[in-house]
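Running this now, will post back.
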Amino acid sequence: MNEPSHEIPPVEKPPETLLDSWKEIAAYLNRDVSTVQRWEKREAMPVHRHVHDKRGSVYALTEELDAWIRNRSAPVDEPEKKPAAKVPPTGSGDSGVSIGQRWRWAALAVILCLCLSAVAWLILRHHSTVAVEPKIRSLAVLPLRNLSGDPAQDYLADGITEELIGRLSTIHDLRVTSHTSVMRFKNPQISVPEIAKTLGVDAVVEGSVMKEGDRIRVTVQLIRGATDEHFWSETYDRQMRDALSLESDLAQSIAEKVEVTVTGKEHQRLNSARPVAPEVYESYLQGRFAFEQGNKAAVERSVRYFEDTLAKDPAFAPAYLGLAKAYTTLGTVFAGVSPQVTRPKVIASARKALALDPDLAEAHAVLANTLQEEWQWTEAEDEYKRALELNPNNASAQAGYALWLSCQGRSDEAINWVQRAQALDPIGVSGSSVSWILFQSHRYDDAIRESRSSLTLQPNNGSNLLLLGFALIANNQPEDAIKVLEKAITVSPGSPAATGVLIRAYAHAGRRSDAMRLLEELIRRRKTGYVPAGAFINAYLGLGDKEQAFYWLEEAYKEQSNILQFLKTHPYFDPIRDDPRFVDLVHRVGLV
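Update: finished.
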C-alpha cells in the first residue's frame, strides 16, 4: 500500500484532500480521536469548523496537517509527554499572571471550600437525624375505617384489621397489640400520639377499606407514635378472591418499612395466602364479626356463619378455628352447656383446622386450653409452646400458658407470663385473668388491687366482679364481697359461678339464711338444666359442709369440671387438703 503523499497540495485539489470529521483526521494521522482533539487544543493543530447549523462538525486539509507535522517540535511517532501542571507564579511584574487572575484563583478556592463544608454539614446532619430516629419495636394496627357508607360492611374492615394483626404478630422482633385492645379506638376521640402512648407502642397503622362489587381497596399509612410523622402510605386494589394475598402483601410491606428482622420461616408465614371465593371469605368474616360481639346470641350466630363457610369451602381452615373458639365460649363463658357437650366439638374443630394448616397458632392455643381442662397436662403444654413459637404476640396463648403454670404451682412464672399477655392485650386479657392467678398464689391484696383497677375501665365486667369477690372473701372481707357479687349476678343474670361464690360470702358474713335460700335456688335449677358442679363446691365449702363438698367434687370429676384444674393451688381447698379423699383426687387429676 502506498504511503500518503506529504507534498503541499494546492487548494484546488480534489475533494479527497478534505478530511471532513474527527474520525477522518484521526485516521489520516494514525491516532485516536481523543489524541488529535488534544493536539488541536494544546498545539494549535489546524482544524476548521463548518459554518452551518451543525456547529460541532469539523474539517481539516491534508496539506495543512502535513505542514504542521513538519514544524511540530515532537515527532508524531514519539509518545506524547504529559504537560507539567501550571502553577500560578507568586511574583508580579512580567510573570504573565495579572493581579485580577490571582484574585480569581483565590475566590474559586474559597467557593470550593465553602461548598465542601456545606456538603459535609448536610451529610453529618442527615446521619445525625437518622441516628436519633428510634427503632420501631412495637406496633398497633388501629381498626380500619369502613368507607363504603354502609354500616353492614363493618365486618369486612374489622376482619381485615384482625387478619393483619394476626400476620404481623408472627414476627418475633415486633410486639403487636392485640385486636381486642385496639378495637376501643374504632372511633377515636384522641390523637395518634395519645393512642400510641396509651397502648405503649412506637408506631401506629391506620387506614380504610372500601368494597365495590367484587373489588376491594385498602389504604394504609404508618405513623410514628411520638412525633405523629406519616412516613409511609400505600393503596392496594384487588379482587375479593385475592383478599388473603392483599393482606399478606400489606403485612410484608409494613414489616419492611419498620425495618424489623423477619426470619425465613416468618417470611414464609407472612407470605402464605391462597385464592378464596368471595362468598366464602365474606361468610367467614361475618362469623368473626358476630363472635366479637360477645353476647350469647351473637356467638351462636357465629357458629352458623362458620358452618356456612365450610359448606362452601371445606378446606378453609380459619372457619374450623372460628367454630372451636365459639364452642369454647359457649361452654365456659356462658356455662349453659355441659363441657362434655362442647369440648369434643372444640377439640375436633381445632384438630381439623391444624390438619389443614399446621401453622395456625390460635388453633394450637385453643386446643391446649381444652386439653388442659381435660387434665392432659403434657399435651397441653406442648400445644401452648407450639402456639407461642408460631406467634409470640398471641396474648391468649400467653395467658393460657400462665394458667397452666399456675395449675402446676409455678406461681412466679405464671404471674410473669400473664403480665406479658396483659401488656399485649390490656382488654382481652382482663384484670380477671391476672387477678385469678394472683388469687391462686394467695396474694389477695394484689388480686383485689388488680380487679379494682380493671373495674375502673369496665365497671360492669362480670368476670372482673366475680374474681374480685373471690379475693375479698379470701381476704376476710365478706361484706365487701357481697356487694360486688350481687352486682355480678345483676350484670350476668343467673350466673351459677357468681351464685355459688355469693353463697360462700353470705355464710362468711353470718347471713346463713340468705346463703341457704340461694343454695336451694341452685338445686332447683340443677333439676331443670345444667349447673356446673363447681358452683356447689364453692357453696358447700363456704357453709362448712365437707361431706356435701366431697360429693360435688366427685360429680365435678365425672364431668371434668373446670374447677378441678386448680386443686393444687385454689385457696378455698386449703381446709380439706389433708383429707385422704382430696389427696386421691389430686392424683387422679394428674397434679401430683
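The first strand starts at residue 18 and ends at 19. More later if anyone needs it.
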